[in-house]
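User: Hi! Is it possible to get a structure for several chains at once, not just one? Here's what I have:
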Amino acid sequence: MTSPVLVLLDHAADGALRPSAAELVTLARPLAGDGGVLGAWVGDGPGPDALAVLAAHGVAAVHVVRPDADPALSAVTAEAVTAVLAATGAGLVLIPSTFEGKEVAAHLAASTGAGVVTDADGVQLEDGVPVASKTVLAGTWTTRCSVVGAPAVVTVKANAVPAEPVAAPREPVVVEHELTVSPAARRVELVERTERAPSDRPDLSGAQVVVVGGRGTEGDFGPIEELADLLGAAVGATRVATDEGWIAKEAQIGQTGVTVTPRLYIGAGVSGAVHHRGGMQAAGTIVAVNSDPDAPIFEIADFGVVGDLFTVLPQATAELRRLLG
Amino acid sequence: MTPGNVPRVRILVAVKHVPDIQSERSLGPDGRMVRDGGDGTLNELDENAVEAALTLVEEAEDGEVVVLTVGPDDAVDAVRRGLQMGADEAVHVVDDAIAGSDAVSTARVLAAAVRRLSEQQPVDLVLTGMAALDGLTSLVPTVLADLLELPALTLATEVMVDETAGTVTVRRELDHAVELLRAPLPAVVSVTDSANEPRYPGFKGIMAARKKAVTTWTLADLGIEPDQVGAAGARTAVVAAAERPAREDRVLVTDGGDAGVRLAAYLVENKLV
Ligand SMILES: Cc1cc2nc3c(=O)[nH]c(=O)nc-3n(C[C@H](O)[C@H](O)[C@H](O)COP(=O)(O)OP(=O)(O)OC[C@H]3O[C@@H](n4cnc5c(N)ncnc54)[C@H](O)[C@@H]3O)c2cc1C
Ligand SMILES: Nc1ncnc2c1ncn2[C@@H]1O[C@H](COP(=O)(O)O)[C@@H](O)[C@H]1O
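Assistant: Yes, the chains can be modeled jointly so their relative placement is included. Here is the combined structure:
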């Protein structure tokens, strides 16, 4: 592919770049032709911090699109991406695989004829055609999909590619676009949007280590949180734990929650129901603590402990504190 | 609803027949889901969409729920299940040419069926599940809305219809934010598994469903050319599929008082922390 690759730069309302941006830009670098890696930034433009990250990771140009409608609406973002595609001739668009990202991809499929692969963990070019790899069927199979339609749109999971800076960073060119949003994209009205306050713990979807509690915690996430904080890990949960209100909904890992692909997953009091496995089975190493030797999670655990989480976890935490000094 | 009257609310629910996720699921040499294992079922997440539709009609005290599926012969089971839950009518679009459709092709067929049903009687809402548990793309609802030129409100955990104002408002919880979205009716709305607790069809429901007819349409009935759908119309193609190898060197210890220490040692020795 000789055309540039476009990355949708995900950022918070206050302009803070999300970790997916540097990861997707890293993935895009070997795929981009002469035009290099381009970023699409929808909303008020990037500040100096964000621009520094983009420079460090080799973004050639940032296309800032200011729509005259709320960029939190996926239809508005999709029109902004379409405008940048038209202006740059990019043939491949990488989008973070969040719920919002997949929605933007869906709009692009409908409006531009794009071929879309969601939840990819890698992209390669084969004879100039983008081929995306992904795990399917609750992490039990891997597939590779070629994208025939143009443009090619691939949504990429968090953590799939570690962000790597370039040797010789250069300040990206900033290109400004004004966008008059179509009446169609304005049909949905954003009545209210409350962004969650950022937590001190790492973001669940991108975390390298995740410690997860289920019904076995009986609502006491203390041992989970202590281990997580020692390891700098994110805290996750099963749907039972979030349904019970023991922890916030956004901590739910699984088929209908967040998909995580950490280096290390530690689950305690988690049975390993197929719905939960769908969101974690592709983790690097799986550790499980469960009092029931027949719990299905042991079928996929690299290291399983049959025991009571309320004794095993605190002991492990204390020992790790000693070993790690 | 008395026959001949136009129902007050008319809701279509798109439902998909998928391999049961509790079963041994696999992909064939062509990279397509093996769908003939006899383990097919109504996509669990579409039960939430059917439930949402039934509840809205019950609240309006007058209305009609139509379940709609696109898929092979077996897929009729999915709409039958919807009828058992309490839907009034069912439509099954079936055609050999549909096999291998991607999200856009599927949405194209659904859109044609929705248009056709809307011509018969106006439709207020099209409800869908948040994802089909086979491919988990979550693309179909948004593409469907765009093809129908209707607003898309996705991932609703609450669906509120204001008939007087002619609007639908949804609440949704995303990774970083909670949103309230509103759009004029008709609209396409996808609901999550937190939206409700799907009812279980009772004996009465199962008996009543036996008397309800399922309308079958082919692509020709909908005016769709075969080459627009199926593998021919797909914009993505699976080029390789492989089962992931089982994890090796698995260790299972039973706590005899020092399992926490052994767990810590495992993590450190394997440089995981
Ligand atoms: C459509 C649909 C979608 C779903 N989506 C999701 C999803 O995205 N994510 C998700 O997680 N679930 C999801 N679920 C729910 C899922 O099916 C399971 O019910 C859920 O994952 C079970 O949670 P759990 O492991 O915490 O509870 P349980 O299955 O009840 O398991 C609790 C485990 O804790 C163990 N235990 C108890 N006490 C202790 C102790 N003191 N020490 C150690 N172990 C102990 C028990 O032996 C048991 O194995 C979904 C369900 C449906 C129908
Ligand atoms: N073949 C189909 N027939 C009817 N509805 C479908 C079909 N495929 C997808 N849907 C609907 O679209 C939703 C999302 O599916 P997907 O985009 O494939 O994850 C499902 O929950 C269904 O409501």
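Chain B has one domain: 3-233. Residues B 14-16, 43, 45-46, 49, 69-71, 103, 106, 110, 128-129, 131-132, 135-141 surround adenosine monophosphate (ligand 2) (CB under 6 Å).

User: Great, thank you!
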